[in-house]
Amino acid sequence: MLVLLALSVALLVFHIGLQGMLSTRELGSAWNAGPRDEPRQPVGLVAGRAARASANFRETYPAFVALALALAIAGDPAGWGLAGAWLWFVARLVYLPLYLAGVPYIRSLVWTVALVGLAVMAGAIILQEAGIP
């Protein structure tokens, strides 16, 4: 579980880096290095999608971290929590290029798969705490 947590941090950094790189390419390095007192948003298609995909990732990321840590502490003898964590992680990996490419519906389906992964993780914790293997 802890390896997945570390991999998820790498995915978070990738999201932030991609968004920053695309925004800097559009808005310039002086803007990026400056204090950004004047709010500016990139208007380019891919830069905007990268920003929205990053924001979307960060919406569910705290839940993943909390559930992963809870599973690491409580244990996951049946392995369902780990399966749910992998489901979330792989779905989040697949989600990013789908979002950048502007693929509708399938992207939403992949997001739902990630949400199911979180639900499986939560279910594993609940069952573990209830003493149900």
UniProtKB/TrEMBL annotation:
<keyword id="KW-0812">Transmembrane</keyword>
<keyword id="KW-0472">Membrane</keyword>
<dbReference type="InterPro" id="IPR001129">
    <property type="entry name" value="Membr-assoc_MAPEG"/>
</dbReference>
<feature type="transmembrane region" description="Helical">
    <location>
        <begin position="109"/>
        <end position="127"/>
    </location>
</feature>
<dbReference type="Pfam" id="PF01124">
    <property type="entry name" value="MAPEG"/>
</dbReference>
<protein>
    <submittedName>
        <fullName>Membrane protein</fullName>
    </submittedName>
</protein>
<dbReference type="InterPro" id="IPR023352">
    <property type="entry name" value="MAPEG-like_dom_sf"/>
</dbReference>
<keyword id="KW-1133">Transmembrane helix</keyword>
